[in-house]
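assembly run, all chains below
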Amino acid sequence: MSQSLGLAGLGEPGLIAVFVSAILFAIGVIGVMIRRNAIIVFMCIELMLNAANIALVAFSRMHGVEGQIFVFFVMAVAAAEAAVGLAIIIAIFRHYEVVDLDRFRLLKW
Amino acid sequence: MRKASDVRVFDFATHGSQWLALLPEVILSLAAMSILLHDAFSRSKDPAGGEEERRASIDYLLTMYGIAAAFIASLWLSDGSAAPDALIAVDGFRVAADLILLGGAALVVVISRDYLARENIRSPEYHALLLFALVGMLVLVAARDLILLFVGLELMSIAVYVLTGIVRNDPRSSEASLKYFIVGAFASAFLVYGIALLYGATGTTRLAAAAPAIAASVAGGDLLLTAGIGLLIIGFAFKIAAVPFHMWTPDAYEGAPTPVTAFMATGVKAAAFVALLRVLTVDLGGAREIWIGPIQWLAILTMIIPNMIALAQENVKRMLAYSSVAHAGYLLVGVAAASALGRAASLFYLAAYTVMTIGSFAIIYHVAGKGDRGGFVEDYRGLGWKRPWLAMGLLIFLLSLAGFPPTAGFVGKLYLLRAAVAADEIALAVTLVLTSLIAYYYYLRIVWKMYFDSAPADAVEPAKSEPGFRWAIAGSAIALIIGGILPGAVIERAEDAVAVGAAEANASRSVQALDSEIGAVQEEIPSAETQTP
Amino acid sequence: MAIYDSHWILTLLILIPVFGGMACLVLPEARAKHVALVTTTVLFVLSLPLFWTFDQSEAGFQNVVSIPWIDAWGISYSVGIDGISILMVLLTTFIMPLAVAGSFSYITKRERAFYAMLLFLTTGMIGVFVALDLFLFYVFWEIMLIPMYFLIGVWGGERRIYSAVKFFLYTAAGSLLMLVAIVALAYLNHTATGTWSFAYDEFLALEIAGRTQLWLFTGFALAFAIKVPMFPFHTWLPDAHVEAPTAGSVVLAGVLLKMGIYGFLRFALPLLPQAATHPTVLSVMLMLGLIGILYGAWVAAVQPDAKKLVAYTSVAHLGFIVIGVFGLTTQGIEGGILQMVNHGVSTGALFLLIGMLYERRHTREIADFGGIAKVMPVFAFALVVVGLSSIGLPGTNGFVGEFLILVGTFQTHPWIAAIAATGVIFAACYMLPMVQRMLFNSLDRDENRQLLDLNRRERLILVPFLVLIVLMGVWPGPFLNRTRASVDALLVRMQTAGTVGAEVVRQRQEPPPVAFRSNAEGE
Amino acid sequence: MVSQVFQEGAATNFHPVLPFLILLFPLLGALINGCGAFLWRNDKMVPALIGPGALIAAFIVVLLNFLGMSSAELHGAEISHLWTWIESGDLRIGVDLQFDQLSMLMCLIITGVGSLIHIYSVAYMREDPGFSRYFAYLNLFVFFMLILVLGASLPLMFVGWEGVGLCSYLLIGFWYDNKDFANAGKKAFIVNRIGDAGFLIAMFMLYVAFGTLDFVPIVESAGGQLAYGGLLVTGITLLLFLGCTGKSAQIPLYTWLPDAMAGPTPVSALIHAATMVTAGVYLIARLSVLFALAPVSQGVVAAVGAGTALFAATIAIQQYDIKKVLAYSTISQLGYMFLAVGVGAYTAGVFHLMTHAFFKALLFLGAGAVIHTVHHAWDHGGGDAHHHGDPNDMRNHGGMKAFMPKTWIFMWVATLAIAGVAPFAGFFSKDEIIWNAGGFGYPILWGVALVTAVLTAIYMTRLMVMTFHGKNRTFGHDSTDGAKHIHEVPALMWVPLGVLAVLSFVGGWVNIPEGLSLPIHVDWFHHWLEPVFEPALLVAEEHGIHVAHASPVGGGEALWAGISTLLAVIAVVVTFRTLRARAVPTEAEATPPTGFARLLYDKWYVDELYDRMIVRPSLALWRGCWKIVDTAIIDGIVNGVGQGTKLLGWAGGQIQSGRVTTYLVMFMLGVLLVLGVLG
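ok done. output:
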């Protein structure tokens, strides 16, 4: 079947926004891959979420408000996630005194 | 299925009807909050005395009542219906899922009681979080809108992250929750991005309504849609712990308090699967040829690899963790079938799987003893003759997990096989049986330790269990046997449920959907054959 | 005998052991053996009249009960017997009481569980033989594994765990593939008729393409070949036999091994006739059978362990049955069925005898004995008679079966049968040396001089075997007659199926072109 | 015209009287004595009465039937149906007894000679603890032997065929606590089974060809069914003959018979001389028509027969064990019979079968008497160790005629009979065989037969001389206490010898061919068996085969009969004189012979050959199957798969390193996979 991008209705700026979001997402992924520090890894994940937000907003140019509403949900959830996440990191910091992901190896194999 | 006359229709025109449609969720949330409030106000000055115990048991009761009420509520919903493109699904599929989840949760709560007392986990949030997670699951299975789906998913996940790490003074627990959290967050990012792309491709987050758009973009080979579906699958693959997104599972399962592990292994997985089934095989049913590839691959990998790794496990808890990953693989076969038959099979299997998994985890934490760190295969030597009933329970759960007649596990496996064969997924079917052969070995290993070896002199007798626990185990075991000998009723319920789902899927006017689902209505020829030109 | 008209007898046979087993589990340890004995005896007495009430002119199923079970899948609880299964059912009910009685002094620990397992096993075995719904069949087929797994694993010898697991996985491997084949059949049936069903007779009506038949046949054949066991899938058998307790070995050899053949006769052949009569399939099966005969005998001949020796002889005997069945002639198949019973009787008895010896000396090494005929004349007599029936001496049951098998197969595959006939030589080569080295030669070991001859219980156990050995040897008519109608029906089905079938039943339509017939009638 | 014959046969007025009794008596005897072996072990009275009694009773019934038959004009066979044995498809095998002249004759021999031997056994086995067991076996043997000859179909005959094999096995290994004896029994059974396999296959071929396995229809329709000299009939007959070589101890399967002498001597007389070993001859006679149709097979049978006769005779010359000598002599005489039935002189074969039954039984029983005596002498005479050698060894006998004159005389009668000296029984039967061998155009075999006749005379005379003549060596050379302990056997033993001696003398007179141009000529025997062999003879006739009236080198029957007798007499006399002169060393001081004699003494090393060529290689092969194929390869694969999977699992587990970062990497790989395989 012929492949198409399906971004027809998206205007110039929207298109740019989508690509930005894609790049941002990629950066986030790479960050997660290469960093060892739990906090930073988590931040990179936030980056990915925001990339998604940008994409949503961009698409809502094409499809109307639904996307923007979603963005708010994502933000809210991300906030909750951050709260819990940091709490967890603190909890484990109590045990190990470090936040280096590769140091947590009690559970393996 | 039911006649149109006595169907309770939720049109969502009035606000009330939405609340009613969400009644189980609402009830559970109220229960959870009331628990939080209750122990907020019943903080006693001196932790000494029966205070703690009393509060614990009140929490316990509140939780059970809440779940029971929710159960009744979803039964009440079972003869309701809503428009196919409604925000919240009101259909047999959801109700069936609700019942499975609620039942599972109830079991978990019951078996937790001993555990919490033994490990002396006093934090009252335990039950609250469990309920919130449950709410998330129910929302997840009810969602017809990707936004709602995302919210439900996160609600569930976040609560479970915390539950995993609830034993704060145990590094393993914290480590487990961290691993789970990091990977989970990573995955949900993919999910969100996937949803975004899907939204971009279809212009709506309410896929049921988007059938034409999907059809169009499938026809047009729209990359946006394809990528979106891909990311969506990845997001779910993490939740259902499909290989290779499963790496966190063994660690998280091992590190988490065993009842929570049971909850994760059943509730989370079940909810995610039901959502996946609805999204892929119903809403995106028209795009089967897009997503079937990844699903098949995940299924095969998920069946083979964990089963093999489980062979080499000495720690029973971890072994069961791997085995539950493998079961996700079996369930993926049901997804790949992409038919009403497949959905019904998955529902049945989920029900059986929930019971037998929780049961076995309960027994192994019981055998592991205080600290929940033992539980090596060697510790089971001679158990069969020392604690015959406990062992017999475990025996039944293991046989069911292995898919051996006469247990529900066997019927479920056969059900999945049937779906796979009917969908012409012979390769998957064969993989399924061959991998379950591998699985026989490590399940049997525990059995032979229990019965063929005699206990060493210094073996520690597992503590006596409290009646509730015993009833739960006995009940589950008997349920599995009955489910294996007389599964008729359950099967009919499952097929009924998906039949509704299918009927409504028809309503979404999509050529592909129509084709692939008509079949489904009278569980039909492989959808593969019925692709439109 | 109202019950035998009301058909529920088979269901009773299936249910009684379950309750008996539960009774064993709950009653006091000392009572278990008696409960088991009573249960199995009742079972036998109940089943015996089947032999007379059975209508041998009827090719179809009798005492049929069919009630819907899992409607959604069109699965029904349907049981019945025909000429192929009746002897198997009776064999089972005949062996069980003796196996139980044979364990009275052998089993000393965990008796409750032991006898319960034996009884559950009985349910499974009878179920397999009477099930007319493939789902039901498969359930029984699998259920049997668990009690056997326990029998070997808990009450077995040193390497019991290895053997038990080997047995379990080996057999399970086959049956899982069979499960796929069954489901596939059900699905084919569904596409043909639009309804789901696992009923045997519905599958019989199916028209299946040749290629598909081959695939399905492979699925079934593997499961059955492992169960038989056919070379090269036989290695689980010696281990299982050696490690299993006497009763386990008796049941294993007496009944379980028959299920493979029974499966071929009941399912693989009639359901997939084209595949079964496919020249390649036939020659493969016949070759494997033939190899089994020779190979089994050869390996048996050099075994130092009496029990292992007998185990390998089973491979040889079952090889005979396989070529009899796949020779696809009346004599071959009837002989095969008869030989299944014979093997059950004689090998069962052999294992009992070896068990009795093991109880006394706690060794099975042939070399540890010698000359014990002097101190155990009754034992010696029994062992010789049983051994001779096992090597098919005319006048014993073994001969009738082997003879029919060979006569039958010779008509379609002369060379196979001719080579198989040399099996009688090798049979002598494994049985006589064992008999000699155990019973004869000089009684030179003190521990052998102390041996006590069989006690009353043991003699009583052996009597039925000996009677049957002679009876079936000189008057097999009653047994053969009951199989006839069903076997002929099967053969007609095979004949209409394939090219091979045509010549198969040649000798059944046109009378042999012999002149004397006419003037013989003339006289 | 074949059918006409049978039309008449149908019209006969002979009906067997109480046929089943013939079988029932020995069977009951066996059962009672069998119970006795367990219940009243030490009571010698019951077996002593039941054992011989059953035989005599059977003999009487047989005699009645025989008289009835001879008074009636019977062609074809009378079948008495007892019950249906095997019925499957169109294969119907009844338990039917076939009464015709041949089976009647055999029954007479079996029960008659059998009775004598049973009586003899009572005394011979008197002191054996297994007395009752012995008679149980012996009766059982007779039962099976009668089934063998009376069975109306091949399978039923096969029952007897293997049944007698079983009893032979049990009786050879009767003293089973002696390893060699037990081995001998086992060897006999296994070797016989080789032949039986041939028998079985032949049966299958017959069934395919005829659709039945009953003798009557086969014999009747053979001519029409099978092409003369066709491959099928040749195959069938050769396979049948393989069976015969096993049962009747012919090359190449004869090796079991000499070992079989391990059994009690009366057993050797009954089973390994008079009855069982002749079953092969009987089988060929029974199915003579098939062999008549297969000239090739006939040639083979005749050649093997003659060859065996000569071969065994040569060995017999150098044996010292009296029973071994007789054993090889038996093999040799059986060779004669096969030569006869091979060339087509069926009557001659059966005739020799009968006479041989008389004199060979006599010889064995006589030998038994000697052994018995020596044994006793040693037991009672006590004496030092070296006396307790092998009572069978002729070097421990010598000069017995002084102590046991009756036995001595009887033995000489038998010796002259077997040597073929007129007018003893052996003369007539053997002469007819030799004559026919020449007459049917087998000059070489004819020569062989003549030579063998001479050898027979020689080794038998040697036996007589070493045993009965010269000085007694039982207690060493120079010892006089032999007289004290060696004495004639009791009447219970010598009376049967006497009866047999008479038979060995007159037994041949039932058939005095006019070719001998003696004053009297009797062809009763020929006439008696005529109907049985008629079909075969007809076939031969149709294909222009007939007896020539001159020997291969000219001269009539009378002349050559004279010559052979003369040769025999000369051989006897010469041997007697030469050996009388020679001093024989006792077993103890004897040294094994050297040169060619050694070769004969060691029986041409055939046993060793078989051991190296067949026994050891197959055992090695079988071990290989077990250790290599089974354990190493098949189980190796099975366990290998298991271990391999486990190993893979362990390896997979190692990836589960515990590092989240690894998990994330795997995650990304998964992402790539999913995106890669998207449709």
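Residues 1-5, 505-533 of chain B have pLDDT under 50 and may be disordered.

The first helix of chain B runs from residue 15 to 21.

not gonna interpret more than that til we talk
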